[in-house]
Amino acid sequence: MKKKLFVDLKENSYNILIEKGLLNKLGEELKNIYFGEKIFIITDENVDKYYGSKVKDELDKIGYKTRKMVLAPGEKTKSFSTLPSIYNELLDFKLTRKELIITLGGGVIGDLGGFAASTFLRGVSFIQIPTSLLAQVDSSVGGKVAVDLEKGKNLVGSFYQPKAVFIDPDVLNTLPEKFYKDGMAEVIKYGCIKDRDFFYMLKSLKSREEVMNNIEDILYKCCYIKKSVVERDEKDLGERMLLNFGHTLGHAIEKYYNFTGYSHGEAVAIGMYNISLKSEDEGITEKGVAEEIKEILINYDLPYKVDIKDNNKIIDTISLDKKNIGNVLKVILLKSIGESIIYDTTSDFFKVVR
Ligand code: GLY
């Protein structure tokens, strides 16, 4: 059944639509909100294989003039140096400021295409069609768009809200298992930070099949939590930081292994468990929370511990984290499952990683 969420950001407001089979009627949905002539579709080779022609044909059928740009998959594509090739294609296509870009893909395509949209001709509208679980529950919602520099990820970007987010859960049927798990870590995160019942509902599901039987509700719940937080703190100055639960340590672990050891979700999973262990020791988190997190991570075949030989490297990375303001590091901790807080500490908080 079709589900709709309104993201209330004044003049930058938009709808998130969640519906199985949405891609089959994309043109019908789009013609209610977009009255221009041209649409530029940005996607990657993996997604193009399954959904590129489907999306293009649906839009051509309605009478839009479309052009599709297919990029190599993977984080390397999200580089600042990819941008000129996108701008050139947009210029060749003669896309004007009144027209539209669609990003069809996971977080890389959404972030890169969204950043291109935010800068081309000082900003053209864009619509996100996220195709990975991670992008459907996180990166496509809330308007963070960015590219990577050689010195680090997401170092150039902006807050630029899409005109709509179209989520078709059916596309997850072709999502490889490792990307499914990657996304499930973020899904679990939402239960941890904001919704105890949701956490235990997720904990009760036994397989990917059971998750897929409930997927519209799961996506709705995650997008509802995310959009509510973003509405209260669009520019990430306060409450939005709660979405980073598990991420400070997670990012440091990703970096420790040169972004080749653990996926983002796996690293966040390890981060959520370890920070909760530590904050239980500190008496901030209710006893037993870390164990609950460990159990749910095991259910979803996600890791919860790492064997870090050089913990100083982790501490060094954390001290450079952009959440480190002055000497104060803001970390996200749980008081209990479903209740999170922003806690001021220093990178020494991470001295014990088990
Ligand atoms: N992914 C965290 C945020 O959008 O703020």
UniProtKB/TrEMBL annotation:
Cofactor note text: Binds 1 divalent metal cation per subunit. Can use either Co(2+) or Zn(2+).
UniProt entry tagged with the keyword Amino-acid biosynthesis: yes
Catalyzed chemical reaction(s): 7-phospho-2-dehydro-3-deoxy-D-arabino-heptonate = 3-dehydroquinate + phosphate
Subcellular location: Cytoplasm
Keyword Hydrolase in annotation: no
Domain 3-dehydroquinate synthase C-terminal: residue ranges: 183-324
Pathway this chain belongs to: Metabolic intermediate biosynthesis; chorismate biosynthesis; chorismate from D-erythrose 4-phosphate and phosphoenolpyruvate: step 2/7
A biological process from GO: chorismate biosynthetic process
Highest taxon of source: Bacteria
Family that this chain belongs to: Belongs to the sugar phosphate cyclases superfamily. Dehydroquinate synthase family.
Role summary: Catalyzes the conversion of 3-deoxy-D-arabino-heptulosonate 7-phosphate (DAHP) to dehydroquinate (DHQ).
Name of the protein in its database record: 3-dehydroquinate synthase
The organism of origin for this protein: Clostridium paraputrificum
